[in-house]
Amino acid sequence: MHFELISHDKSSKARAGLLHTDHGVIETPIFMPVGTGGSVKGVHQKELSEDIHAQIILGNTYHLFLRPGTEIIEKAGGLHKFISWDRPMLTDSGGYQVYSLSGSRKINEEGVKFQSHIDGSYHFFTPERAIEIQRSIGADIIMAFDECTPYPCDYNYAKKSMQMTHRWLHRCFEAFNATESKYGYNQSLFPIVQGSTYKDLRTESAETIASFGAEGNAIGGLSVGEPEDELYEMTEHVCAILPSDKPRYLMGVGTPKNLLECIALGIDMFDCVMPSRNARHGMLFTENGTINIKNEKWATDFSPIDSESPVWVDQVYSKAYLRHLIKTGENLGIQIATIHNLSFYLRLMKEAREKIKLGEFSPWKEKMVKQLSQRL
Amino acid sequence: MHFELISHDKSSKARAGLLHTDHGVIETPIFMPVGTGGSVKGVHQKELSEDIHAQIILGNTYHLFLRPGTEIIEKAGGLHKFISWDRPMLTDSGGYQVYSLSGSRKINEEGVKFQSHIDGSYHFFTPERAIEIQRSIGADIIMAFDECTPYPCDYNYAKKSMQMTHRWLHRCFEAFNATESKYGYNQSLFPIVQGSTYKDLRTESAETIASFGAEGNAIGGLSVGEPEDELYEMTEHVCAILPSDKPRYLMGVGTPKNLLECIALGIDMFDCVMPSRNARHGMLFTENGTINIKNEKWATDFSPIDSESPVWVDQVYSKAYLRHLIKTGENLGIQIATIHNLSFYLRLMKEAREKIKLGEFSPWKEKMVKQLSQRL
């Protein structure tokens, strides 16, 4: 993997780059649609590439480990082949879902024992096991096994947890370096900065993570309920410490506004379930603000879903029809809204890249942030 | 509307024709995918036309009346415009769903009072109202309001019900002839033969229906639980009475085998939820038999879903991946399986037409019926 910085904004930390992987080049800043269990919900892989122009998608190790399991993915020749996706892919380490989804969990120095949210079966994830599973899945970018602390988080717990995450990181890299990719292409391991909303912990964590000299670095434990100001403050603080010649990935963030603000702070990669999850509830993102398509006001609005969008679903279907589909629980409504939202996120990233290259990012961002926050 | 018969099979009653409507020509025999509430579940209109090659789709008056309601559909300029579908469309009369779905219902000579399965609200459908609603929806082919008797059905009830359906038919045609299409293109009203599984009642009903000289005729009240033999016996019997120069539509039928057998008896049009509903449960139709994709045996079968199918989903995705998606409840699994099944049904109809034109229908049908009944 090789990260090539091609442009820097004049009046912010925003930068545009190219992340070269064995499955192709990713233009940064980028947003990665979430393909939880091997599928971005309701969207064909063909639509992901042709309509949404996704350059990289994310898979969740927790979900994929439980179903279909690593044995089937290995037999398929890795997740790319299993799901018929030949562009880059990233997997998280499973940690976040273990904490947020599993029936019960017990953390100790060795790892995390947890109960499947599907059948109640018990499993044990360790840093070594998380690497092993991610070797089987075979994403281009894999993530270190960490503990993602909740918000708010007691200082002492945050500190202890962060220190354990750092110890786990050593074990992750040991396991990673002792193994090889199973499918003939390279995998890169990204470590994750933790430290909750405490500046001194974030400093310590960012310095520790930077010292590993990884091919990319991630910031975790944000967008978990903290005020927006703290998200930006921590992101800015950590970005200043993480190496600038490596991609920075802010995990689980966020709204279109969050993305633009964090690009300005030096973030290159994002993932979030928001555009796809909110789509399923009828919430549409547009460059002029958000639309709750369930509102009565759209019932007889037969204009295209988004007249300013180049995506075919936005031109072919009307707001009134999409409202009808979402209100009546039709799958097609979810499909249309998800394509709409994800393609909007990807176009926003594309425009951000262009503005960075033109040296016009900051004023554009200011204007967009205002527009994006409106409710239509 | 104009029905042009272009070919007859030598050794059966099968025929190939062209049904000319104001939204284009339908090649018969044809299968009509069911688009219940203005959407064929999980399938884009673009996929219906480009991947499935649907020539006509069906909408349900009951569902569309309840949601979004005729007011919105009228404001949109009819259902075609509302859902962005410019090919032919057919709506049923609402009768079948009133009997099968609604909370409670009370039938009398005037019509049917029923309770919405969605919000419990009360509504009253009469023959006149069913026509009025179908004028608002604006399908190319609309159906008479009838009572669809269950199976088994007491002879006296079947007879009384049939007679009422005939009286309702007079009222339907009166209402139809007294009104006009709202959207500038023609609508045709098809009457429906009833009479349960009683030959004498079917004779009486078919003769009555034939006497109306409608542009097409339908057979209802079959595929409601009766043995397959009775389905074929009644269909054959009624087909012999209904005019041969008008299309014959067998409502709610059926399996691929049912379709081929009934084409041989003189049926031109079919609709059924089976291909789309079964798809949602992981049941795939192929020309070599049915596949229950949930079966363990497909867990590591990485071959294409259907190597003999020209449809892209069948080539791009593997059986193991589709199994994973269906097992984990992913929408994408439903989407893939639905496109697979519907496109299979439409290809089967296309092949039937070709075989009729080549005079090879009957031997082909015999061979196919054996293949189709296998379980893979």
Low-confidence regions of chain A: none
Describe the oligomeric state of these chains in a short phrase.
homodimer
Number of helices of chain A: 15
How many DSSP E strands of chain A?
Answer: 17
Strand order of the largest sheet of chain A: 4-15-14-13-12
CATH topology of the largest domain in chain A: TIM Barrel
What spatial form of chain A do the alpha-carbon principal axes imply? Answer: globular
The CATH architecture of the largest domain in chain A can be named as Alpha-Beta Barrel
Sheet having the most strands of chain A:
5 strands, parallel
In terms of topology, how is this protein built?
Two copies of one chain form a homodimer.
Chain A: E1 2-8, E2 15-21, E3 24-28, E4 30-32, H1 45-50, E5 57-59, H2 61-66, H3 70-76, H4 79-83, E6 89-91, H5 95-100, E7 105-107, E8 112-115, E9 122-125, H6 127-137, E10 141-143, H7 155-177, E11 188-190, E12 192-193, H8 199-211, E13 217-219, H9 228-241, E14 248-250, H10 256-264, E15 269-271, H11 274-280, E16 283-286, E17 289-292, H12 312-316, H13 319-327, H14 331-358, H15 361-372
Parallel strand pairs in A: 4-15, 5-6, 6-10, 10-11, 12-13, 13-14, 14-15
Antiparallel strand pairs in A: 1-2, 2-3, 7-8, 8-9, 16-17
Helix pairs in contact in A: 6-7, 7-8, 8-9, 10-14, 10-15, 11-14, 13-14, 14-15
